[in-house]
Design a protein that fits this description.
- This protein is α+β, with helices and mostly antiparallel strands.
- The protein has two helices and five strands.
- Helix content is 35%, strand content 28%.
- A hairpin with a 6-residue loop joins strand 4 and strand 5.
- The longest helix is centred in the N-terminal third of the chain and has 22 residues.
- The model has no long low-confidence stretch (mean pLDDT 76).
Length: 80
């Protein structure tokens, strides 16, 4: 019986992570690259509010980056 309850829970968490991986993107403060994280990255990165500690795919630096909604991103000041 407990196994039947865990399957929908695990599936729900995975679907939420998949949605977040597509709906949000991040801006590297070092090189200015806009990027998304893979689905597995949603589980393996630290987060604090609207910031996430990730590695930039372009420059390779690991830093705390702000989370932006993909459709309504407003670049930080000073970023072209």
């Amino acid at each position: 019986m407990p196994t039947l309850l865990l399957v929908p829970l695990i599936l729900g968490v995975f679907l939420l992570a998949a949605w977040m991986a597509r709906a949000y993107e991040y801006h590297c403060p070092e090189c200015g690259e806009w990027f998304q994280t893979p689905i597995l990255g949603q589980f393996t990165t630290l987060n604090m509010g609207n910031e996430r500690r990730v590695r930039c795919p372009r420059c390779g630096k690991r830093s705390w980056v702000k989370t932006f909604r993909k459709k309504a991103r407003n670049p930080p000041r000073g970023v072209g």
